[in-house]
Amino acid sequence: MLLSLCTCFLWLSTSDLWTVQAQDPDTDVSTRSPQRDLAPNNVDFAFTLYRHLVASAPGENVFISPLSISMALAMLSLGARGYTRAQLLQGLGFNLTKTSEAEIHQGFQHLHHFHKESDATLEMAMGNALFLDRSMEPLESFSADSKHYYGLEVLATDFEDWAGASRQINEYIENKTHGKIVNLLSKLDSSATLVLVNYIFFKGMWAHPFDPESTREENFYVNESTVVTVPMMFQSSPTKYLKDRVLPCQLVQLEYTGNGTVFFILPDEGKMDTVIAALSRDTIQRWSESLTISQVDLHIPKVSISGDYDLRAILRDMGIADRVNGTDFSGITREAQLKASKVVHKAMLQLSESGLEAAAPFGLTPKAAYKRLAVHINRPFIVMIFDHFTWSSLFLGKVMNPT
Ligand SMILES: *[C@@H]1O[C@H](CO)[C@@H](O)[C@H](O)[C@H]1NC(C)=O
Ligand SMILES: *[C@@H]1O[C@H](CO)[C@@H](O)[C@H](O)[C@H]1NC(C)=O
Ligand SMILES: *[C@@H]1O[C@H](CO)[C@@H](O)[C@H](O)[C@H]1NC(C)=O
Ligand SMILES: *[C@@H]1O[C@H](CO)[C@@H](O)[C@H](O)[C@H]1NC(C)=O
Ligand SMILES: CC(=O)N[C@H]1CO[C@H](CO)[C@@H](O)[C@@H]1O
């Protein structure tokens, strides 16, 4: 435990990104911050998973919420038995001799607490639900623990009627995300006896909004042969910018109101893979320290990005579960034929102009002799959203084609 805390402190004391909220008392390194205990592990897992997904779908968009996946899998481990249980937590990057299971679940409990409520500005909704066939009873210890740590709602569903069941699930998610995530399950999905859903919706309000009047249709160069048109937002303001000397890319960091911060990373043409291979905590830290404020003419596509994934398949491919005679989830319910279970993840992000109308002055002033720069996010890019308060990786995306 001590070791893992040291990692946090090191990271904190050397990193710009995580200490930006100077008024936040929790950035005081002498204070233990329970909402950040899991951050190093979770961010490492985020990049491992991201690289795996990118490698398995070359040329396609990838969009995930690493925080919500980590949380869903840790929760699932409560219902796993034997080898599967340890395997899931280790697969998430935890060293169980250093961090106990109880500490892991407590860490996620804090994260869930901080992220579940969509506060007025961050417009965020996150949660977990388990749909279980009516013929099955969840085990008491599983429902109690998963509710306690993760706020899991268990809902009885009639899976004999798959059309009805998928409608029930879709309506539930639609309601919880205020209509933002619809049709989570499609009619084509095959039937199941148990569906675990983790959902997250995030609509950030820019600390410095874009002016809708400035949005224009512009070209986005998908690859050598394909050009699409997208609404391109524009702002010219003091912005954190870096032309990286180590990796073939440039990036900007923008702030949302509240605790969200976003990196737009624009690899040089054809260098997407090189940049993705180098994504790590150290890289983010180096970037955070190297970004400087410049007057930037910034063009960013106004898009809605989403990704949905069957996590069971991903776990299997990553060798996290299913390798040893399938998985043992007999801790969820005694009757479960868990061969027919699903773990669905859907993440969605809307990039738009909106911010606080009466935005406070940005608080960033360019160095006296700055050069005016233009950054056109008009070819494949990487987008990463972090939370300053919990150091969580809320979203990781690779946008190849925004249309
Ligand atoms: C887990 O932590 C222990 C104690 O710090 C260490 O000896 C061990 O090598 C670690 N295991 C892994 C797989 O990193
Ligand atoms: C959403 O859920 C709330 C609370 O459970 C309920 O009152 C409301 O009717 C639901 N709305 C829809 C559209 O299902
Ligand atoms: C370019 O992108 C289009 C649309 O995504 C795709 O159909 C095509 O295969 C791509 N071409 C190359 C050379 O990658
Ligand atoms: C960051 O999040 C914490 C916890 O939710 C909250 O108390 C704090 O006010 C937030 N900071 C800002 C600047 O919104
Ligand atoms: C049912 C099944 O797949 N059983 C296998 C479980 O794993 C052992 C050892 O790897 C195999 O010998 C069994 O056949």
Automatic annotation (TrEMBL):
What keywords are annotated for this sequence in UniProt? Glycoprotein, Lipid-binding, Secreted, Signal, Steroid-binding, Transport
The reply on keyword Transport is yes
Q: Which Pfam families match?
A: Serpin
Q: Where is the signal peptide?
A: 1-22
Query: SUPFAM superfamilies from the xrefs?
Result: Serpins
Gene Ontology cellular component terms for the protein in this record: extracellular space
User: Residues in domain Serpin?
Assistant: 47-402
Q: Which InterPro entries match?
A: Serpin_CS (IPR023795), Serpin_dom (IPR023796), Serpin_fam (IPR000215), Serpin_sf (IPR036186), Serpin_sf_1 (IPR042178), Serpin_sf_2 (IPR042185)
Principal location listed in the UniProt entry: secreted
Molecular function GO terms recorded: serine-type endopeptidase inhibitor activity; steroid binding
The listed locations are: Secreted
UniProt function note? Major transport protein for glucocorticoids and progestins in the blood of almost all vertebrate species.
Would you identify the family this protein belongs to, as annotated? Answer: Belongs to the serpin family.
Q: Which protein, by its recorded name, is this?
A: Corticosteroid-binding globulin
Q: Organism source for this protein?
A: Panthera leo
